[in-house]
Amino acid sequence: MKAGIVGLPNVGKSTLFNCLSNAKAQSANFPFCTIEPNIGVVNVPDPRLEKLESLVNPERVLPATVEIVDIAGLVKGASKGEGLGNQFLANIRETDAILHVLRCFDNDNIVHVDGNVNPIRDKETIDMELQLKDLETVEKKLEKVKRAAKTGNKEAQKEEAVLLKIKAGLEAGISVRALEFSEEEDIDFVKPSQFITDKPVMYVCNVDEDSANSGNAYVDKVREAVKDENAEVLVLAVGTEADINELDDYEERQMFLADIGLEEPGSAKLIRSAYKLLNLQTYFTAGVKEVRAWTVDVGATAPQAAGVIHTDFEKGFIRAEVIAYNDYVQFGSEAKVKEAGKMRVEGKNYVVKDGDVMHFLFNV
Q1: In this predicted structure, what is the pLDDT of residue 69?
Q2: Is 224 exposed, middle or buried (0-12, 13-18, 19+ CB in 10 A)?
Q3: What pTM does this model have?
Q4: Among 8, 118, 164, 229, which is most buried by a count of CB atoms within 10 Å?
Q5: Which whole-number Å values give the CA distances from 101 to 15, 64, 137, 164, 331, in the listed order?
């Protein structure tokens, strides 16, 4: 599962990417600096993992990860191939969620591609390009579906109605994610089309250091503009995050954060939010060899969770021994949880809960 960082040129995308991953993407003060999408595999900060480590004292600890893709800056006309438009749009299509970076700071030394700072205009520029690309997709699909609908094909008629609704929405500047469909319509017709504007989105407001804690007037405008979109807005001083990132000493980092009134780097909050945006959750395995966080979709069953470790675990799944994270912490060890009768044995239909500590029994 991948989250793609998008935005206009020079809004701080590559600097943010560098903060999130150890891969140092090229970062320069001009458009089209990032051409090939840079991909970083980023650890998901999770204090629960540290707590389990302190209780189990394992040989190694492995956190959950999420893939972040730094996509080159999009410009007006991208849907018609302007700039490196076609390539950018193809890269966005391959991601599962969008982290939309908006410039919410003034700085005369950093050129704005449109001459002045206006995050709402910037947002609308990107939205429009993505909507135009989706409009192209929906029109192509409609050509085929209309022919089948005319022959009396009931499925094609249903699909035609959904596609016409999407077309009308996009022409009115409404992204697919903001339109309402029945569950059946969504599963049968909307999701398979992989519309770019149907992907979940989070707006990352890149602010100056003084606004890192509470935002600023630009951020207020963004919040107002996206209030009907069911999208999260995250405030991040990307330049400051880059400075924190340069510090090797943990104590120094904490002092820096305290000085600007933050408890943790904003990048940690962003990674967790991206994980949630991708509809992912974590379960743990805990033993003396390793304590490990595993990533599964929200709603995954016990056999599917076992399959993340190895496909054989899913094929030969017998049952799962499950301990709720809070019970593990309360009693302090697997043995004491068992003594207290808090370990559960679950079968194939068990739906994994975030934070479950699990052990699988299987037979291949």
Answers
A1: 87
A2: exposed
A3: 0.82
A4: 8
A5: 11, 24, 25, 31, 43
